[in-house]
Design brief:
Layout: H1 10-40, H2 45-72, H3 75-98, H4 104-133, H5 138-167, H6 169-187, E1 192-194, E2 211-213, H7 227-239, H8 242-262, H9 265-272, H10 277-305, H11 307-318, H12 332-361, H13 368-396, H14 399-412, H15 415-418
Antiparallel strand pairs: 1-2
Helix pairs in contact: 1-4, 1-5, 1-6, 2-4, 2-7, 2-13, 3-4, 3-6, 4-13, 5-6, 5-10, 5-12, 7-13, 8-12, 8-13, 8-14, 10-11, 10-12, 11-12, 13-14
């Protein structure tokens, strides 16, 4: 092992192990919860759509304030409490089923509340990562996490389908509860991380906050802006920078298209194709294989082409495969749809490694929580909207016609990145310092390999006040 290896960082190993447990439970639940609604409780397309909508609705309702709250809170406590809440909520499902009281209304409540806990866990985990590993290890760390998510997709969703067949869907959800409990216990070993910013630096050149024990209160530096001002600052940072805006729109469209598929797949497999739960888990696991391959390919390809160029070319070459998924049917058509799902997921794996690394590098430490929350709001809000549209259209025009709409969205989702300045970016950006509220930050000139050696070119856009300059298959992160 190299002396500077990422795996020599104890806290990264803790976070990685906890993430492994979380991914196992999440992916078992991804299969088991909708099948509990469809197979055990007789849910139709509209009810399946409502269940999927509620699972991501919290990102629309609380993601933006959650980012500001996480920036003020102790990250370890956020992660542990969120996992414990999910464990309790998921455990209520098999208990209610055992005593004969399980209902769609309870599944709706569990989906909504676990979605709220997921908001805090996801924002906290992505915000804590740069402080654990340092910015120079971000691509390696994100590649490891995305690769783990892909393995979780394959193993968790495959196991979820088998567990549903062997135990029934409600009892399979008990595995999800135990996994989140194990993750919470593992996270208690997290020792050090970047202290969450509870204040605004007094000057644009202020030194970054050093790594301190997770539960040590930070030293105040300046009065804390109000919650509304902090949320606005995060929105301006993401939507005011052309590259971050392109990453956000492309990922949101990718999630919208994917959810138009995923919401109706349980209904399609069980009601129309008359396939067992294991077949649905296997189909979703194929997406996990694609994400794993994409996460492994991302770094070597980007080392040759650059992060931005890799994202643009991957979209141009792979996104049109989304039009193969609506061909799903019996026999060879199922295989062809699976091949399209594999290629689309391959692109998602590359996007999740390079896109998340780019936006973390473009964001100063005090803004990480709000930046991640803004992305979560847009990306998972797209999942909620996609679920609602999919359930509605599934009732009105049928599942297959809805899948064609999803395929069209996926096939064109890459265009915002392809048409943005990211297409020519080769070198990773450097996050500029954060200016006090109301002061324009001084962004360093962008350096790109497309320019001649030693030559600098001006940033693509003027700084935005408060921006600080310029994350089925797993959803785009």
């Amino acid at each position: 092992m190299r002396p500077d290896s990422l795996w020599r960082i104890p806290d990264f190993r803790v976070l990685f192990a906890a993430t492994a447990l979380t991914q196992l439970g999440t992916n078992v639940g991804y299969v088991a919860v909708p099948l509990a609604a469809v197979a055990a409780l007789g849910a139709g397309p509209g009810q399946a759509g409502l269940l999927a909508t509620l699972s991501t609705l919290a990102f629309l309702l609380i993601a933006l304030p959650a980012g500001a709250w996480v920036d003020r809170m102790r990250h370890r406590r956020v992660l542990v409490v969120a996992d414990l809440v999910k464990a309790v909520l998921y455990a209520s499902v098999p208990l209610a089923w055992w005593f004969g009281g399980l209902s769609l209304e309870q599944l709706y409540a569990v989906a909504l509340l676990t979605g709220g806990a997921t908001v805090f866990f996801d924002v906290g985990a992505q915000s804590v990562l740069p402080g654990l590993v340092g910015r120079r290890h971000l691509v390696d760390a994100n590649a490891a996490v995305v690769g783990l998510m892909a393995i979780g997709n394959v193993a968790g969703r495959g196991a979820g389908g088998i567990l549903v067949q062997l135990l029934t869907a409600p009892l399979a959800i008990a595995v999800t509860a135990l996994s989140h409990l194990g993750s919470a216990l593992r996270l208690t070993a997290l020792r050090r991380t970047t202290t969450p910013a509870t204040t605004t630096p007094a000057s644009p050149t202020a030194a970054p906050t050093p790594a301190t024990p997770v539960d040590m209160a930070p030293t105040p530096m300046a009065p804390t802006p109000g919650l509304g001002a902090q949320i606005t600052e995060g929105l301006r940072h993401v939507l005011g920078a052309p590259e971050l805006r392109a990453l956000a729109v492309t990922a949101a469209l990718n999630n919208l298209g994917s959810q138009l598929f995923n919401t109706l797949l349980p209904v399609l497999f069980v009601r129309e194709l008359h396939l067992p739960a294991g077949a649905l888990g296997l189909f979703w696991a194929v997406g996990g294989v694609g994400i794993l391959l994409g996460s492994r390919c991302a770094r070597p390809i980007s080392a040759r082409l650059g992060d931005g160029r890799t994202l643009a070319l991957a979209g141009l070459c792979l996104a049109p495969a989304g039009l193969l998924v609506p061909l799903i049917g019996d026999g060879p058509w199922l295989l062809l749809a699976g091949a399209g799902w594999l290629l689309v997921s391959l692109k998602t794996g590359m996007d999740n490694v390079l896109g998340v690394s780019l936006r973390q590098r473009m964001t100063p430490d005090p803004l990480l929580g709000r930046m991640n929350a803004t992305f979560r709001f847009l990306l998972f809000g797209a999942l909620a909207v996609g679920s609602a549209i999919s359930g509605l259209l599934g009732e009105l025009i049928g599942p297959h016609a809805t899948l064609w709409l999803g395929g069209a969205v996926l096939a064109t989702a890459f265009l915002p990145v392809y048409l943005s300045p990211l297409r020519t970016r080769r070198r990773p950006p450097v996050a500029p310092p954060v200016a006090p509220p109301g002061v324009l930050p001084v962004a360093p000139p962008a350096v790109d390999a497309a320019t001649s050696p030693g030559r600098r070119r001006a940033p693509a856009a003027s700084p935005v006040p408060g921006s600080g300059g310029d994350e089925g298959c797993a959803p785009a992160r």
